[in-house]
Amino acid sequence: MNFAKSLRVVLVTGLVQLAGCGDENGDFGRPRENRPQPVELVLLEDGRPDPSVLAAEQVVYRGNGDEPQTLDPHRAEGVPTSHILRDLFEGLTTEAPDGDIIPGAATGWNISRDARTYTFYLRRDLKWSNGDPIKAEDFIYSLRRAADPETASDAAVSLLPILNAREVLAGELPVEDLGISLLDEYTLQITLTGPTPYFLGLLASPVAYPVNRKNVEEFGDQFSRPGKLVSNGAFVLKSWNPRVSIELEKNPLFREVDQVIIERVIYYPIEDLTAEVTMFRSGALDWTAEVPNNQFKWLQHYYPDELVVSPWMGSYFYGFNLLREPFAENPELRQALILAIDRKVITEKVTQFGEKPSFSLVPPGIEGYVPFTPDYAEWTQHQRDEAARRLYEMAGYSAENPLYVEIRYNTSENHKKIALAIASMWKQQLGVIATLVNEEFRVFLQNREQKIITQVFRAGWISDYNDPYSFLEMFRTGHAGNDYGYSNDTFDALLDEVGTERIRARRERLMFEAERELLADFVIIPVYSYVSKRLVDTHLRGWQDNVMDHHLSRYMFKLKSRQAGEQAASSRVDSTSSADVPEAGEAPAEEIPAGEAEVHEGPGAATEVGRKADDEGES
Amino acid sequence: MRQEGIIHHATSRLLGLIPTLLVLITIAFFMIRVAPGGPFDGEKVLPPEIRANLDAKYHLDEPLMQQYFRYLGQIITLDFGPSFQYKDWTVNELIAQGFPVSLTVGGLAMVLAFFVGTAIGIAAALRQNTAADYSIMGIAMLGISIPNFVVAPLLILVLAVYAGWLPAGGWDWSIQRMVLPVITLALPAIAYIARLTRGSMIEVLHSNYIRTARAKGLPGHLVIRRHALKPALLPVISFMGPATAGLITGSVVIERIYSIPGLGSYFVQGALNRDYTLVMGVVIFYGVIIILLNFIVDILYSWMNPRIRFDEVM
Amino acid sequence: MSDSVNTIVDDPFAAAMAEDDVRGRSLWMDAWHRLLKNRAAVISGIIMFVMLLVVLFGPMLSPWEGDFTDWDNTSSPPSLETGHWFGTDAVGRDILVRTLEGGRVSLMVGLVATLVSLVIGVTYGAIAGYYGGFTDRFMMRVVDIIYALPFMFFVILLMVVFGRHIVLIFVAIGAVNWLDMARIVRGQTLGLKNTEYVEAARACGVEHRDIIRRHIIPNLLGVVMVYVTLTIPQVILVESFLSFLGLGVQEPMSSWGALVNDGAQDMESAPWTLIFPAAFLTVTLYCFNYIGDGMRDALDPKDHF
To answer: Which residues of A touch C265 (CB under 8 A)?
Structure first.
């Protein structure tokens, strides 16, 4: 009988020792000394890597989060699927490794003076993966298909800037009335409803990708299967084992095929973040979609070269339901709650990934735009707490009459921890009694939308495109995403003006004002701005940090491993140095100087993949 | 006499399938639609026009009863419809892909559990109330005293990451990738089977006809093999019916932690994603399997125990 | 009459015999004594009793509250200096207090859910077994049908539809677990139905309801008690599975299942978050299993001669 007890003791001691040993000697699995190290990167005159440093096998293994719902670019949604589609297809525009929008299938474009008409000139030698030539009419067909109500595309929101798109989607106008037209065999023209500076970025997203008409008509819903799918990107679909892997191989007919070094890309849909890390550690993956939060310190300690953290176009905040007690008509209370949160503690102790605390709506990093920061962002936390207490009392609450509030969030480790932290801070500073209500994702969304029982809830937004408008527009009166019940005529008017303003600087000024208006009304509780965080094998290069977190495999390549006995390399080469990118006219055979090893810090914050940010049950 | 009994029995059982399935389908159908939220909810809220398009395409805008009868009509042709979540695949395809995986892992786990569990149980029974008995059963009970979502990561950590002997997860039909999931899945079953076997073996060993056999001078191991084993294993056989059904339809925990594309996660994910068709398909599939397995177990049971007739087994 | 009485009083030997007879040993006493001889069960019982005390009163003795976030000491290992004997979790909550409070929840879930399935199962099974015939076949057919439904699926649906109140967890688990109980009880009842005293009672015209209540159910107690003791650990594991899916008890309440689940993810970086709750959970499950097995052995006469 005592066996059971003694067994337990053995187990416990064993585990403790196991853990203890791990700490001293480094990660048991593959301590750094044992992990293969890459050779130094050597670049040629044109900026491309010297073939002598390349590994023999150029295959990338990417962990990719959720299983894609579909590989039809017009019906796909979610970030994981978009990664795969970006490798399979190419739109009129495409993205450089650093996120800049560059010409894709189009060699260039003209924008009219009123910024409402775009004329695109297609390259003339483009081919589909089945050999068919690509012409402007392919893009006409594809855009019409994306806007067609029959296709039932949910990503078609991105097409709304196009003239008549809304009416076409609603079925009020036939698809032929969509504001696009064929000027000649290789030229097409798109007319917009108003100036839309981010339109070129939209064209690089999957909903605007071309699909081969014959392909679709022949196979219907099944056209996106391996063996059938015809695409125009750097890779073609070789195989698709649902929930096991999706394999792509280099498209020999791609327009820049000589510049693509990677031969095959294999995507693994791994839901469990811890399992993904484990697979990375055992060498099965070169690239993870994400990393679990709790392991940051540990990973930073044992995998500093592989851990990559960089700013991401997303904002994590909580929202108030302005239509209900206790927040309706109560700006003092709202402001008190906003102030009483120590964002530094949250980003340093809870999420821990180097997110930047935020007091604004729009995250930093959008070129040309500086988000509005309220004055209390400059205060010390101590000052903020004091101000919060004063406001709390002004709002009529005290120790004898504390605020009872429900904090709502959907099932996820990260959300839970942050909610706990916030509840605890409110309690410690103000005496607020908060109940945490954790709901399953879809239930949560519904409740938020209905605005009947919510009080303060987890919100946040990851942008579709590199423009502040994406963050602002959901706060319009009556917008489908306006779960806050916010309605401010000044704000709406500012946004309307933004929609017609052609001059960039003025446009940004207007958005700045709109953001100020929103923050002064204390609609949201900004917490931090997102960072993307993942593990990347040190052999894999060619990618760069970019704020949209779009990493196309066609720019990547793998270095070969250092042989045993060779001198140890500098710990980590700064991958964002532009020398990695094959660009014409770069400096000749340059070796990246040692000592630029840095873990990329950045503003931003943790967690969930994708703007469809919180799929449930992510423990 | 017995032959007629079997056929008659089999037919009536198989016919009994139909009302069972009908009830199953109806309950599942309405329950999942009662759950708030739908398959097309997302953080990025869709404009109403697009939402309407999606609903129309999947017939979600029809009245509920109409959807129900439409679904029944589809089922009769064994067409479970397209998945709402995995838009490129039909439910039939998804089940066809997931089931062989779950069957393999679950089936192997069951086989392993049977042999190891019965061996342990018999060994313990033969040494009843000794230290060996306690130790053996003590270890066996670990299987039901530590949750599998602890055992799995532990095994991965030790055997895959630290030692590097086995892969950390994933699936490609290779033996290596089956080892850890099968073992993890088998552990609780081993515990139950060991316990059952031990208990029933003890009972059998103390029964009269065993004593008679022993008194007659039959050597120990022959006593066990010829006379004690079959009756001792009866309760185990009964247990294995529903247990196997559960195992081969996949375990969510195992599938998630080892990244295995089996049916188990379809249950949970389907419900959470409100993927109505997938959920229904999997639920029905599970129901059929359980009924079939129960049936097989009954046959096995009565074959092994000649004293029981078919109708008494019920 | 007076003659026999006198006889007994007068004859000391007869008196002694009579005394023994009167005091006698009921079946229950026999079983109880057998149970006490089972060392595993006894030790488990003691451990469980201590566990219960610790779990109920322990948190009151600790300087930390379960929801207090000690920001200076997040994810810190066990140490006497920080005052966190079991260490802290990622948001700085004391693991010792959390484990004990989690124990309250887990044990409560185990007991209440089992109670729910007990009440439903016993009633259902007794009625089916007692009335027999068509009623029995119909009721068992219903059980068969329900058996074919994927249990977890329905628990999940119930949690999703009705939210995650702790009461709902009891009900959901209990409502799905009663099937085995019903089957066992029905089997036993079928056997008891044909005993003599039941026949006698019926002959006397006692109502069916009363027969069930007064004769059948008390005789089922043995089997039921064993089953209850063995169901409790199962239920606790089911709750921990729900926690794995994110559908278990709501924060800031916790259960061993939820704690173990959180800990399993930090196994390498913060093993104390796993080890302590897991140890408590495992010990408890072991104990219940040993007690249940012990009770079963004790009540089963075939085991002993």
So the answer is: 274, 292, 294, 413, 619
